[in-house]
From TrEMBL:
Protein name: Peptide/nickel transport system permease protein
Native source organism of the sequence: Variovorax ginsengisoli
Domain of life from the UniProt record: Bacteria
Transmembrane segments annotated in the record for this chain: 21-43, 95-125, 137-156, 162-180, 219-244, 271-295
Topology versus the membrane: Multi-pass membrane protein
Amino acid sequence: MKNTIARWFDSDVGYSFRTSPVAMAAAAIAFVCIFCSVFAGWVSPHNPADLATLELSDARLPPAWVAEGGTRKYLLGTDDQGRDILSAVIYGARISLVVGVVSVVLSVVVGVLFGLLAGFLGGWLDTFLMRVCDVMLSFPPILVALLISGVGRALFPNAHESLAFAVLIVSISLTGWVQYARTVRGSTLVERNKEYVQAARVTGVAPSRIMLRHVLPNVTGPVMVLATIQVATSIITEATLSFLGLGVPPTSPSLGTLIRVGNDYLFSGEWWITVFPGLMLVLIALSVNLLGDWLRDATNPRLR
């Protein structure tokens, strides 16, 4: 493990990371956010999902540094139900990250599969899949997500939380796979005419084996860069749907839900209820986007 990390730091990508203060700062912020989200049960001072610990008398308390009403028990204040804002932000970030990462993984799997088939086999399948991509690109992703999520809520109003999460992830992934499919198709069109692919065909290797063992490893570079950037986009989409009331269930609030709740009290002086969840969302999205931009530049040989 140590040797692998050492080799990575000595590589071109590792050197680019070590010499980029922006990438290092973004990685540190992303690591802190992900670490706190994954280990929310140990990091957060309170459990906002435990109704037995909520005190309505502590509702809408300001942050600890505010002289009037602030207390060290709630460093970032409380919301309208007496939940600790710091704990709610940590737990909400975990939900947003899970939804964002899972939706991107699903988009990558579907997009890479369709892109490989379209680029390697060609013919009517390539034409059909690309026309489907054109149709999907003609609709704004947020509108498609709103439609699928709204229909899912209407058809299953009393659905279990797991089903609600599944509908949300599918609604975000429905348009996300298109970019991966078009990217992989373009790379596959180049790779399928190279000598190593022709040699594999001559020796009788099955087309499926050529795609998975030979072509796929050579087209995953752009996919990894695109997936890194798409994580931030998926998190923002999930926050938008939750802000509009079509995201995660109210019993498992994400950052978007917390921002929506705090928006009702923003002009009455309780600014901390919406500002801190919004700040957490900005930090996650900004750090992931900066890492994606750095990875794109570091893996581009024309920029070295």
